[in-house]
Amino acid sequence: MFDLRTYSSHLRVTTLVCLFAILSVAQAQQNPSPLRAPATPLIVHDPYFSVWSKGDKLTDSATRHWTDTPQQLNGIVRVDDHAYRFLGDADRGVAPLEQVSKEVTPTRTIVVLTSTEIELRITFLTPALPHDLDVMARPVTYLTWTVKARDGKKHQVQIYLDAAGTLATNDGGEEVVWSRGALEGLRLLRIGTKTQPVLQRSGDNLRINWGYFYFAVPEQDGQAELTAGNNRYREAFIKTGHLPADDDIGGPRTPQSRYPYPPTLNVNLRLGKVGDTPVSRHILLAYDDINSVQYMNRSLLPYWRKQSSSFAQLLKTAEQEYKSLEKRSAQFDAELQADLVGAGGPEYAAIATLAFRQAIAAHKLVEDGDGTPFFMPKENFSNGSISTVDVIYPSAPMFLLLNPKLVEAQLEPVLRYAETPRWRFPFAPHDLGVYPLANGQLYGGGEESEVDQMPVEESADIILLVAAISQAERNTDFAKRYWPLLTKWAEYLHSKGLDPENQLSTDDFAGHLAHNSNLSIKAIEGLGAYASLARKLGYADVAASYQSTAEHMSTQWLQMAQDGDHYRLAFDKPGTWSQKYNLVWDRILNVNLFPNKVADEEIAFYKQHLNPYGLPLDNRATYTKLDWEIWTATLATNRKDFELLVHPVFKFLDETPDRVPMTDWYDTNSARMTGFLARSVVAGVYIKMLADQAMWQKWARRKP
After folding, report:
1. Cβ-count burial 238-275 (b if 16+ within 10 Å, e if not)
2. What is the pLDDT of residues 346-366, one digit of tens each?
3. 48-290 maps to which CATH number?
């Protein structure tokens, strides 16, 4: 029975919640504060070479792989005869420097720390420039220290850094070996496992246990001490300012060994007398993984091998280009961050900035035997799948914006697989296996059964992304190459897309759902995108037929999904609702299949259902997906509503107690992570930038 008093009370509460949210956004935008990253990216390149700091300060905790396994980097600075910690939590008897600021940009993490005597500025630079694949693919991070006095005096300053063998192991029980070497202009230390089991394991919660981690130290006229030693050498540095002259040759042994102490790489940089004029030193932190992934039972080389014949050559080139890349990265950061602020405000820009390196580092860029780049994501802490189509789909906006060739490289291995006789279904595949072994789909029914497949989801995903590539590149070359596949999948969407059967969608954690209205939108938009591609390719009759089909289906959708002031979660479930994030393509791809009132009514409804930390995915639970929230916010036709929906996402990242790389699945009431972390899908937050065609073209057409 309808109760007017209950309804009125509910309306008053809802109105107050919405008003409070609006006032909170207004205050936040007038006084924007830096985002407190749940975890801070330090060395972030690919699913294996990925080291983070998980406290507010660099000295709060041990550095860790994104899976939370310790991969320790420890840093000490000696100022005259006093030692201070600046990185890691070893030697807690040594006082830490005071951290006074931390800034995360797309390519850099910059931390400023002080003592009474000095200021130390630390920069982790990963020049992951998407428009320059040769540079982006290099597994090299530059760590730079800049020191100056702050008390008007001159001080003798030394910088110490060590790296544990865990950086090159899956677990601390694997034996490692270590060595030193030299190249022209560089002195090297390296560490790796004794057995070198290249590409012998696949799975989710795994770290690399083949290849070698490197310190590469530029020649500095004898002002650097390098030792392949153990963690007791840090004690020697703290006490004396020197490292033992002897390497520790008592190997191989495990990183968790107690005697004769865990093996480490050790560097001592002597900066001399430092006064008011800043003095800088840098080193290269790098990883040679030898072979990166396996594709259809062929081991593939990392993409950087296209330009460098060896890892030695890579290191020399990286060192030679340090200054230019430092400058290029700073310029890239400034321009991208300014455009993000212009598109969605400072809170949106902070979210997108934090997502940047994480999104790239959830992929590995390799080359196939014919030289074609493959940009292959790992489904981190979801199930470990490699090249999952419904993970590529939400991640694509950042790469469509910054280099659409990377979206081609995401799709290329999937489409080549789908062309083979092994894939015998009339819809698109879900994945290529489990990282790093891309030898064929394993999810759901794999290659043998339609059970637990995502037929509508994956087919529409690929068609939409191919259409977006065509729009970004202003040509149909990629679509033409795979037109028979796209046609087969468009026919499937025509047959099955309007009212999807009981099946999974990309939100598979929510379970099977029949008559999914948001999935239906995706199918309809996919058919509209296919019609647009056919028109560009000169297939006028095909384009007219599919355009008519898509328009008819959208008209039917409006009748089937209508539920008063909003649209249903499922056609057969009145009183339900969901985020209709797939509708965003209607405007971005100019297919214009749905009247503007659909987005307007949905946004008005969402504003009434915001929780403190975001908009729930649908009415079934209070959890949400961070990437879809930004897609949904992009449906808003005015900046005020966009910022209203984005603000709780910023608040979540700023306040969540879960100190992990950005999660995309969390609870909107508690700000607790529900699942997933360090995934590529956070690149989806860049979809707001695609809504501005001029902005999209500006970035997509950029040259190295």
Report:
1. beebebbeebbeebebbbebeeebbbbbbbbbbbeebe
2. 999 999 999 999 999 999 999
3. 2.70.98.40
CA 500 – CA 514 distance, rounded (Å): 6
For the chain, report the end-to-end CA distance as a whole number of angstroms.
65
Q: Give Rg (Cα) of the chain.
A: 26
Please, are residues 332 and 129 in contact by the beta-carbon 8 Å criterion?
yes
For residue 629, the one-letter residue type is E
Q: Dump pLDDT digits (tens) for 522-550.
A: 999 999 999 999 999 999 999 999 999 99
CA 430 to chain centre: 20
For residues 186 and 583, give the distance between their C-alpha atoms in angstroms, rounded to a whole number: 53
Q: Give the C-alpha distances (Å, rounded to integers) separating 155 from 122, 239, 275, 279.
A: 18, 17, 7, 12
Q: Which of 186, 451, 447 is nearest to 319 (CA)?
A: 186
Domain ranges in the chain are: 48-290, 344-700
Closest CA to 283 of 229, 202, 217, 336: 217
Two structure tokens written together for 113: 């720390």
d(CA 338, CA 325): 20
Residue-level pLDDT at 703: 85
- Specify whether the CB–CB gap between 37 and 104 falls below 8 A: yes
pLDDT for residue 350: 98
Query: Residue 47 burial by CB count (10 A; 0-12/13-18/19+): exposed, middle or buried?
Result: buried
| Pairing of the two strands 186-193 and 212-218 | antiparallel
pLDDT the model gives residue 550:
98
- As given in the structure block, the two tokens for residue 60 are 């709060």
Residue at 17: amino acid letter:
V
Contact 252/179 with Cβ under 8 angstroms?
no
pLDDT above 90 (res 704): no
Contact 661, 667 (CB under 8 A): no
392-434 confidence digits (pLDDT tens): 999 999 999 999 999 999 999 999 999 999 999 999 999 999 9
Cα–Cα distance between 684 and 397 in angstroms, integer?
5
Q: Please report the sign of the dihedral spanned by the C-alpha atoms of residue 425, residue 297, residue 461, residue 457.
A: positive
Predicted confidence (pLDDT) at residue 17 exceeds the cutoff of 80: no
Is 316:186 a contact under the CB 8 Å cutoff? yes
pTM of the full predicted structure?
0.94
Give the separation between CA 579 and CA 576, rounded to whole angstroms: 11
Taking the C-alpha atoms of 113, 118, 119 and 122 in order, what is their torsion angle to the nearest 10 degrees?
-70
344: left (phi over 0), alpha (psi -120 to 50) or beta: alpha
CATH number assigned to the domain covering 344-700: 1.50.10.10
Distances (CA, A) of 469 to 248, 466, 472, 629: 53, 5, 5, 23
- The predicted pLDDT at position 81 comes to 92
Whole-number pLDDT of residue 33: 57
Interacting residues of 310 by C-beta distance below 8 A, sequence separation 6+:
none
**19 pLDDT exceeds 90?**
no
Helix, coil or strand: residue 265:
strand
pLDDT of residue 260: 81
Distance in angstroms (rounded) separating the CA atoms of residues 529 and 615: 28
